Amino acid sequence: MTTPKVVLVVEDDPVIGPALAHRLRLEGYRPRLAETGAAALREARALRPDAVVSDIRLPDMSGEEVYLRLLADLGALPAFFMTAFGDVAQAVRLVRAGARDYLTKPLDVDRLVEALGAALASAPAAPSEGREPAGLGVSAAMRGVEAMLRKAARVDVPVVLTGETGVGKEVAARFLHAASARAGEPFVALNCAAVPRDLAESTLFGHERGAFTGAATRQSGLAERAGAGTLLLDEIAELAPELQAKLLRLVQERAFLPLGAPAERRFAARLVCATHADLAARVRAGSFREDLYYRLHVIPVEIPPLRRRVEDLPWLAERLLSEAVARFGLGARRLSPPAAAALADHDWPGNVRELRNRIERAVALAEGEEIGPDDLFPESQLERAAAAAAPMLGAAIQGATRLAVSDALARAGGNRAEAARLLGVSRTTLWKRMRELGLTGE
Ligand SMILES: Nc1ncnc2c1ncn2[C@@H]1O[C@H](COP(=O)(O)OP(=O)(O)OP(=O)(O)O)[C@@H](O)[C@H]1O
Question: Which atom of ligand 1 sits closest to the CA of residue 274?
Fold first, then answer.
């Protein structure tokens, strides 16, 4: 059986949103409705939807902003926009940024369902039980990480993934999930740094109806939604102290208490944590509980930065390139040899996320089939232009200085002390400038 694809519907209209979600459910999708941009971003980070269908005007931000933030967080994914305003400029911008389609209201739902079906059929399928998960790299370092994760997948103990931002900690967590016996169960992720502090507890553990003002219905938390699958807590170092205590209970007793619930529930998922912070240092600084640290650190796995495994660059670039081409529905693209060489010269502070962003931008904007170094690193083109402009700027500054100095000397009747006073500089500075400019003061 295939797992239903998750479609995030972002719509604040109380009729259109639920109606669309209902239709998508009938079509065999797992829709998730968000009524604001902030809720959509939260849901997207936790659920990693397969596609997004969003209104362009939302109460708190534009659909465009939601999409660009989703792109940064999740990479490209099929996105469809709905608008009552037919704003062509925004449509063009969104399609350039990778959106699939732009539909005007009243919405032709059949057309949307058809386009969604086509987009999701061409998207790579989620790994399912028994299938070999996609590899993480070809370097010895990443082969080592894969071997470690495969071993960890066999036993149900907490894993902590560490590494710089964008190295692929979440990708590694998904690899672990796919390699484990839990592969057919949900994979649920929460970025602890992104969820507002007052919502963190109910997001993680859920709440009963009436548990707090505004809790109109019962809401299950991610600990419950992860079922017998895997729960990834990303940026674990940012978890508030009161939640650290509750997480300890989750790990130790495998139990959690939804807000306002009469009794604890059993935690059936596997816990994986990730962080780019030095957790041991946080323990020493007193901001992370030592007992939790030791509970979580049963299997620590470090994902090395991309600059320390350059052998992975061509492999990753190739993979991200074909993914971007398929997602944007474009024809073939390839990296020119100088572009491939430029990849190796860069030191990738943003790691694989930066590589993905550069490749997606290059695929979207390159004119022909071949992607050159300037498509990947447009800033170096600007730097070259600035360097070329620098001599011109220098000449302009020199010309202006010459005029000002000659004028001051003329007004001071050749008296250098007076000319320096008029210019607001010391006599030594004036003397230096005159020497540089070849002025004698005559
Ligand atoms: N081995 C890989 N193959 C393909 N894509 C990858 C790989 N590793 C990372 N990526 C891509 O790089 C981006 C960042 O990956 P991921 O979110 O897993 O990093 P992270 O270390 O969890 O980042 P952060 O510290 O910011 O949470 C994603 O778009 C992901 O798809």
Answer: 22
Tokens of 62: 């534009």
Higher pLDDT, 288 or 114: 288
102: helix, coil or strand?
Answer: strand
Q: Is the CB of 356 under 6 A from ligand 1?
A: yes
Please check whether residue 255 is in contact with residue 267, taking contact to mean a CB–CB distance below 8 angstroms.
yes
Q: Is 188 exposed, middle or buried (0-12, 13-18, 19+ CB in 10 A)?
A: buried
Res 126: pLDDT? 43
Tell me, using a 6 A CB cutoff, whether residue 31 lines ligand 1. Answer: no
**Res 129 pLDDT > 70:** no
How far apart are the CA of 204 and the centre of ligand 1, in A? Answer: 22
Q: Which of 7-21, 141-155, 289-303 has the lowest mean pLDDT?
A: 7-21
Instruction: Give the closest residue (by CA) to ligand 1 atom 13.
Output: 353
All residues at 6 or more sequence positions from 75 whose CB lies less than 8 Å from its CB, including other chains = 353, 356, 360
Q: Can you say whether residue 48 is alpha, beta or left, with left for phi > 0 and alpha for psi between -120 and 50 degrees?
A: left
Alpha carbon nearest to ligand 1 atom 12, residue: 353
**Separation of CA 368 and ligand 1 centre (Å):** 28
Spatial separation of the C-alpha atoms in residues 161 and 189, rounded to whole Å: 13
- Give pLDDT tens digits for 146-178: 999 999 999 988 999 999 999 999 999 999 999
CA distance 10 to 53: 6
Query: Residue 132 above 60 pLDDT?
Result: no
- For a mutational test of ligand 1's pocket, the pick from 171, 232, 272, 319, i.e. the residue with the most ligand atoms closer than 8 A to its C-beta, is 171
**165 Cβ closer than 6 Å to some ligand 1 atom:** yes
> Which residue, by CA, sits nearest to atom 2 of ligand 1?
136
Strands 187-191 and 206-207: unpaired
Q: Is the pTM of this model over 0.95?
A: no
Residue 128: per-residue pLDDT:
39
- Indicate if the pLDDT at residue 137 is higher than 50: yes
Q: Which residue is closest in CA terms to ligand 1's atom 8?
A: 168
Judge contact between 296 and 252, C-beta under 8 A: no
pLDDT at 292 over 90: yes
DSSP 125-186: PPP-TTSPPPP--SSHHHHHHHHHHHHHHHS---EEEE-STTSSHHHHHHHHHHHSTTTTS-
**Using one digit for the tens of pLDDT, what is the confidence trace for 393-429?**
677 777 788 888 888 888 888 888 888 888 888 787 8
